[in-house]
Amino acid sequence: MSAKPVRKAVFPVGGLGTRFLPATKAIPKEMLPIVDRPLIQYAVDEAIEAGIEQMIFVTGRGKAAIEDHFDIAFELETTMSGRGKSLDILGPTRLRPGAVTYVRQQEPLGLGHAVWCARDVVGDEPFAVLLADDFMVGKPGCLKQMIDAYNRVGGNVICAEVVPDEHTHRYGIITPGAADGPLTEVKGLVEKPAPGTAPSNLSVIGRYILQPEVMGILSGQEKGAGGEIQLTDAMARMIGDQPFHGLTFAGTRYDCGDKVGFLHANMAMALSRDEMADDVELIMNELLEARVEPRRAA
Ligand code: UTP
Fold this sequence. Notes:
Layout: E1 8-13, E2 33-34, E3 37-38, H1 39-49, E4 54-59, H2 63-69, H3 74-82, E5 100-104, H4 111-116, H5 119-122, E6 127-130, E7 134-137, H6 142-153, E8 156-162, E9 172-180, E10 183-191, E11 202-210, H7 213-218, H8 231-236, E12 244-248, E13 252-255, H9 259-271, H10 277-297
Parallel strand pairs: 1-4, 1-6, 4-5, 8-12
Antiparallel strand pairs: 2-3, 6-11, 7-13, 8-11, 9-10, 9-11, 10-12
Uridine 5'-triphosphate binds next to strand 1 and helix 4.
């Protein structure tokens, strides 16, 4: 089938990031680094790999750091050049002129509200949504895998991951239909179901390919779980009218909205980098030894 191409991606970065305070008091959590790149850089790289041409950031407070990150840093670059230092390291921060748009979400009323704030820039075409705090490591990247699936089945494709039963109340949860390899038909969606009531343990994680009709549904501004305008509720209303699938991505997700998940991602990425892996492994082993030794002595 020939699905309309996905050219635009929305990056909602307007959340409060309260779980990372005080680190996120003056910078958005999407600027927290995994080794030496901010989370948002990985998400943008993933979108570019998937063929996305237009990046739409829905920002709130702390917008300056993200805007500056994807801009020319005149003073820094002039000083570095003057000292004979290469600017190659800054290459990924340079987006094609005109390829980035900023929209302001004045109040953090929920993920659905953040996506809706981008409606005029998205227009009448399918679009992707990437939550940079869900850090996805895979080859090809997660969004590329999803776009390949979308090109086969069309409609809406969301990223799905099996989570332990005791965690289902933290996520949007899928009522699954027929499965075809990594693709599962989505028959229903519920945001943060009460413990013991989840229809499955297949959760929705932070990558979405959505049809523009979702914007019309979001304009109703209905509040859901936690008093927030939930993207999950709006997506649920498209089921039945349009094809809707969950794709289980081949790769690893790190929940970098959570402190332990964020540390996990940093350790894993540091161990994947040739120039530091040996040193990092040594340090990790020393730390583990030091943790075990006092217990042995006790
Ligand atoms: P979270 O549920 O992780 O909330 O948002 P949060 O505010 O970012 O973080 P905590 O829980 O207070 O620590 C999921 C995603 O939705 C975006 C966030 O930036 C994050 O990428 N979001 C959420 C918005 O852009 N606007 C909102 O109103 C809410």
